[in-house]
Write a structure and sequence with these properties.
CATH superfamily of the largest domain: 3-Deoxy-D-manno-octulosonic-acid transferase, N-terminal domain
Number of strands: 13
Radius of gyration: 20 Å
Order of helices and strands: EHEHEHHHEHEHEHEEHEHEHEHEHEH
Largest sheet: 7 strands, parallel
Shape: globular
CATH architecture of the largest domain: 3-Layer(aba) Sandwich
Strand content: 5-15%
Helix content: 40-55%
Strand order of the largest sheet: 3-2-1-4-5-6-7
Number of domains: 2
Structural class: alpha/beta
Length: about 375
């Protein structure tokens, strides 16, 4: 009897807290439903992803085949990248030993995140690769939990056509469905909701009561207008003063190494005792949450996990064209947070977080998607 092979394509390995969490969600699910399957994770830095994620499923290997291929044919026009990657894979699928894992895959699955949009347009080559492999081998072609907004207008017809060819197509927000109008496209929620419970750090009485994730840019390789560091830091400093909180009660988290510390460095000149929880701490122990906290986050996944832990907060949009859709999707789904621009001081939130019922509904919806993909392999 053939052992099933699952080929996951993910952003793991940066490491970015949210991307690692998404990948871990699918590895936990596959460990539950297909513990004897071979699982291949195609990601950005496989050597780092292996350190953080290899313990979850007993038969996981890590490669960077499709990411390397997309970067090899990188072009400012995503249509040229899509064309080159499709041609190369279609030609090499029957001959290249490097593609052995792709040839034997029963499912080729691009997992979720804010990837397939105009901010990172060249990564549409990953979607093209999923379809090229499926077209050659007959494997299921799957995309789940993606955010497609904002999208370059000239790319919308091509992206919609590619989504229509997928075996299973799922996104995490209604705006993506409205944008593409693809026939089979449905919006459920982020892939992290697949986890029965997100791992969080143990609740300690010393954990700060106000926790912050504040980024200085969207990604180190992408120019996208964002709120300047000094402006965001001043907004936070004034907010802390308005709320009456001081250094021991304030903590920052580093979701993405290198671009989540610039604001913290400015803020700690005014509040020298603020604590920074490193990316490595988050990946090892989980988000530092405890009852009674209030969260402030520019990033999507700290918003999701803190709200799923029953905590209220505010989401800050430092790049409205990209982040508004992400945060609003969680608010619409019941996070209980509010979305603000770093201009007006927000009131201290009272209450918030997902209810037990809304969490159960979101998890059931994502679980149903997973069952469609993996029940019969």
């Amino acid at each position: 009897m053939k052992r099933p092979t699952v080929y996951l394509v993910s952003c793991a390995g940066v490491p970015n807290y949210g991307d690692e969490l998404i990948t871990s969600a699918w590895l936990h699910y596959l460990a539950e439903v297909h513990p004897t399957a071979d699982v291949v994770v195609d990601c950005i830095r496989p050597e780092r992803a292996e350190i953080d994620l290899s313990w979850i499923h007993p038969r996981t290997t890590f490669v960077d085949t499709l990411w390397t291929l997309g970067l090899r044919y990188y072009d400012s026009d995503p249509r040229r990248v899509i064309e080159a990657v499709t041609a190369r894979l279609t030609h090499d699928m029957t001959s290249s030993g490097l593609l052995r894992a792709l040839r034997r895959a029963d499912v080729v699955h691009l997992v979720g995140g804010g990837l397939l949009n105009g901010v990172y347009s060249w990564t549409l080559s990953l979607l093209a690769a999923v379809l090229a492999v499926s077209g050659t081998t007959g494997a299921k072609s799957v995309v789940t939990g993606q955010g497609l907004c904002p999208q370059s207008p000239e790319m919308v017809p091509m992206v919609a056509e590619m989504f229509d060819r997928l075996t299973v197509a799922d996104v995490r927000d209604q705006e993506s469905v409205t944008l593409l109008k693809a026939r089979q496209l449905a919006a459920t929620c982020d892939d992290v909701f697949l986890l029965p419970q997100v791992r969080v750090a143990g609740q300690e009485h010393r954990t700060p009561t106000v926790m912050v994730c504040a980024q200085s840019e969207i990604a180190p390789t992408k120019e996208l207008p964002v709120t300047p560091v000094d402006e965001l830091a001043e907004f936070l400093i004034c907010t802390f003063a308005e709320w009456g909180v001081d250094s021991p009660d304030i903590g920052f988290i580093e979701s993405f190494p290198g671009i989540d510390t610039a604001v913290y460095e400015v803020v700690r000149t005014a509040f020298p005792g603020v604590r920074l929880y490193s990316n490595n701490e988050l990946l090892q122990h989980g988000l530092p949450v405890r009852a009674g906290q209030t969260w402030i986050s520019t990033r999507f996944h700290p918003h999701l996990v803190a709200a799923a832990s029953g905590l209220g907060g505010i989401a800050i949009s430092v790049a409205p064209s990209y982040q508004d859709t992400k945060h609003r999707s969680l608010i619409t789904q019941g996070s209980g947070w509010s979305l603000v621009e770093p201009i007006r001081l927000p009131h201290l939130p009272r209450g918030g977080g997902f209810t037990t019922e809304s969490l159960a509904s979101l998890r059931a919806a994502k679980r149903a998607v997973a069952t469609r993909i993996y029940a019969d392999i």
